[in-house]
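Z., the sequence and structure:
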Amino acid sequence: MGLGTRETACAPALSATGATSRDTPCSRFIDFWIENSVHAAERNGALGAEQDASALTSRCVDMASSLGLSNAALEQEVGDPAAYINAKLMTANALERDQRT
């Protein structure tokens, strides 16, 4: 059974309670950031998309902060940002593997 589509990997954020995000600046930022920053690994180990979830999380938190969004706001929106970004990264990679087979 497949995991879905690229849109599944970049689907709107779920709040920490599991409900679909509200239309807030934080939810719009997270959705935009995931869509533009979390990508499947390149084929054959070629250099390309960042695969280190902690580096991605740091970039996300830094960018959010530069826009006036606090880490607390991110946590309220998605729970643990590192776990959320890691899950999105794993989904993107799994979808890419499914498309290759």
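The helical segments are 6-9, 25-37, 53-66, 71-78, 81-100. The CA atoms of residues 38 and 89 lie 6 Å apart.

Let me know what you think.
H.
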